[in-house]
Amino acid sequence: MIPDLIDATTDYWKKLDELEAAYQRDEVSLSEVDARVQELMTDLGRSRRKALTAFWASFRYTVRQQWEAIAGVACIATLTCVWLSLLQS
Q1: Nearest Cα residue to 34 out of 8, 21, 16
Q2: Which long-range contacts link 36-42 to residues 24+ away (Cβ below 8 Å)?
Q3: What tens-digit pLDDT sequence spans the chain (89 residues)?
Q4: Is the alpha carbon torsion for 52, 53, 56, 57 positive or negative?
Q5: In Å, how far are 13, 17, 29, 41, 58 from 24, measured between CA atoms?
Q6: CA–CA–CA angle 29, 34, 36 (5° rounding)
Q7: Structure pTM?
Q8: CA-to-CA distance for 84 and 89, rounded, in angstroms?
């Protein structure tokens, strides 16, 4: 299953906003804010890596399954470009 990157990013910003509000109310120190921001960035980075890995695996699977169709379309496109180039000469 592909991780939902939009939800992960929305959750990240929500947590950052909550952390900022807590800092503004003097409930957390600046060093605690720095540590928590680093944790949040690490979590978001992990979610992004998972999403990229899932996308890449899906892309590779699709290419492997549809290789002949992709190669055929590429050949037709190449021949069409060559034909159009020859027509303009």
Answers
A1: 16
A2: 40/12, 40/15, 40/16
A3: 667 889 999 999 999 999 999 999 999 999 999 999 999 999 999 999 999 999 999 999 999 999 999 999 999 999 999 999 999 87
A4: negative
A5: 16, 10, 10, 20, 44
A6: 95
A7: 0.69
A8: 9
